[in-house]
């Protein structure tokens, strides 16, 4: 083993893993003799505290940052880990990168798509607009609800509208152009098809404004609804209904023939480039151990209960929705969470009211809805 490495610190935003992380650093000390101090979680005040500590040159050695504007805000503090041995194990496209260099990695990912009841739907029959429409019509004719969104802003519009953005060749660039008024959703083909999907949903499925997240999950659990647009997080609510009596999984929302799940990184871990060279070395040693050792892997999957974003990990006890997300992630069959780059607050304040109006107004078409969305976006991006 190396000569004693200096003690390093970790500051991260997920309160729910704080205790397991403490326990993990104890095991690290037992296995390697090196010390890692975990700073107390700050909950909602995390970003403010992180900023203050970094500005005062009292920053942690390793810290977490949210994807999108938060990572952008702190990027001058990130150490370039592109040449570290452990980056080869990060799942495809899940690294935190700027200008082609790797600055961070996620401990876990989340994903969403169409959560479906295997006894009612076969993904081979839901691959595009046409087959989606036929499936909904057939289920409706049989007295079942084929598909459900629910009334909460993200579950009504925020997640489902991610797909046409994520399918753009450069989602971030498209959003920047949209912010400047240089492109319009109503004039972009993936969005035009999105409007048609919403027409089909409006004509053949339960009105989402009459559905709450709770009732959406209840109707799915009891076999009244065949498919819901949801994420792996919804599994914990399904288990409240006991044994479902049918198998479930997650398939892609098939807009424009999309065959990938939307997988996002809630946050990445980075190394503070203001730490001393010895501390940076110690941080890299710890991260390498975390991402390659059996102890580290078991903590990520069994203690933190994350869907890992690593290609060198076994994850055998995942629930079926997490399993689908894990398989998509490991094989790179994913589209990004483009919504991480939307203007702050736009989903709740601007897109959701437009979607409510669409579902309340019987004769509003998907095409008219896109124009409303463009107007709402232009106001919000000012």
Description:
By secondary structure, this protein is α/β, with parallel strands linked by helices. Helix content is 43%, strand content 14%. The chain has helices at residues 18-32, 46-55, 69-74, 129-141, 153-158, 162-166, 171-180, 189-204, 213-221, 235-238, 277-292, 294-303, 320-331, 346-360, 366-381, and strands spanning 8-11, 36-38, 62-66, 96-98, 101-105, 110-117, 145-148, 225-231, 248-251, 261-264, 267-271, 334-335. The strands form two sheets. A six-stranded mixed beta sheet has the order 2-1-3-11-5-4. Strands 6, 7, 8, 9, 10 and 12 form a six-stranded mixed beta sheet that branches. Helix 1 links the parallel strand 1 (8-11) and strand 2. It is globular and about 70 Å long. The N and C termini lie far apart (57 Å).
Low-confidence stretches: none
Mean pLDDT: 96
Main beta-sheet annotation: 6 strands, mixed
Based on secondary structure, the structural category is alpha/beta
- The succession of helices and strands, N to C, reads EHEHEHEEEHEHHHHHEHEEEHHHEHH
Number of helices: 15
**How far is the first residue's CA from the last residue's CA?**
57 Å
- Helix fraction bin: 40-55%
Oligomer: single chain
Strands of the biggest beta sheet: in what spatial order?
A: 2-1-3-11-5-4
Number of strands: 12
């Amino acid at each position: 083993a190396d000569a004693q490495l200096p003690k390093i610190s970790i500051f991260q935003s997920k309160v729910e893993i704080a205790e397991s992380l403490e326990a993990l650093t104890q095991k690290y000390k037992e296995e390697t003799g090196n010390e890692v101090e975990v700073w107390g979680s700050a909950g909602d005040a995390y970003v403010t505290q992180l900023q203050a500590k970094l500005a005062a040159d009292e920053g942690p050695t390793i810290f977490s940052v949210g994807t999108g504007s938060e990572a952008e805000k702190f990027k001058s503090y990130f150490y370039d880990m592109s040449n570290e041995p452990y980056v080869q194990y990060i799942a495809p496209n899940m690294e935190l990168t700027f200008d082609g260099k790797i600055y961070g990695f996620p401990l876990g990912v989340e994903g969403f798509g169409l959560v479906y009841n295997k006894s009612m739907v076969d993904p081979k029959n839901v691959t595009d607009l046409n087959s989606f429409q036929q499936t909904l019509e057939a289920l409706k004719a049989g007295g079942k609800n084929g598909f459900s969104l629910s009334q909460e802003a993200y579950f009504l519009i925020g997640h489902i509208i991610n797909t046409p953005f994520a399918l753009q060749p450069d989602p971030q660039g498209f959003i920047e152009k949209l912010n400047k008024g240089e492109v319009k959703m109503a004039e972009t083909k993936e969005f035009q098809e999105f409007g048609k999907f919403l027409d089909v949903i409006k004509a053949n499925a339960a009105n989402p404004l009459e559905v709450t997240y709770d009732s959406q999950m209840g109707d799915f659990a009891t076999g009244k609804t065949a498919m819901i647009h949801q994420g792996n997080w919804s599994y914990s609510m399904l288990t409240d209904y006991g044994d479902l009596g049918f198998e479930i999984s997650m398939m892609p929302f098939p807009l424009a023939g999309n065959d990938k799940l939307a997988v996002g990184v809630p946050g990445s871990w980075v190394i503070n480039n203001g730490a001393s060279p010895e501390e940076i070395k110690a941080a890299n040693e710890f991260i390498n151990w975390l991402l390659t050792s059996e102890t580290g892997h078991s903590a990520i999957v069994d203690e933190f209960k994350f869907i890992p974003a690593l290609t060198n990990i076994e994850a055998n006890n995942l629930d079926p929705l997490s399993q689908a997300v894990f398989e998509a992630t490991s094989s790179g069959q994913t589209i990004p969470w483009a919504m991480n780059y939307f203007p702050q607050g736009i989903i709740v304040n601007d897109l959701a009211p437009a979607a409510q109006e669409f579902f309340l107004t019987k004769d509003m078409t998907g095409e008219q809805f896109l124009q409303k969305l463009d107007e709402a976006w232009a106001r919000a991006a000012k």
